[in-house]
Design goal:
mainly alpha
Length: 120
Amino acid sequence: MNVVDLIDRAGMAAGSLSVLASRMHKHPARISEWKNGKRKPDAAEIAYMAKTAGLPVLITVAMIEAELHPETRDLWETALGEIDAQLVGRVAPVRYRAITDNLAKLVSFWFGASPRLGCA
């Protein structure tokens, strides 16, 4: 998934890109600029679209920010690792395994590579 896919999914969930723009208090042209790469949404805008699309907000923000800002990709990958590490102590092992398996699938889908999540 990339920022264009996220915008499209959020637009579908909202009913249209125009409705999404209105709910975000943005001019529809701004959404088009994001899709065309002329501008980049900020983390809060990415979070809103992820929530609207029914995606995990923090994970989506980290992945899209890593895509939009390759110079800080290591930072966002570290953040994803910290999310994973925090899940270890707070979620029952069976549920944790399901969560990390799904997270691994998302990372693989978005980046086309195996994540470094430390799943057992």
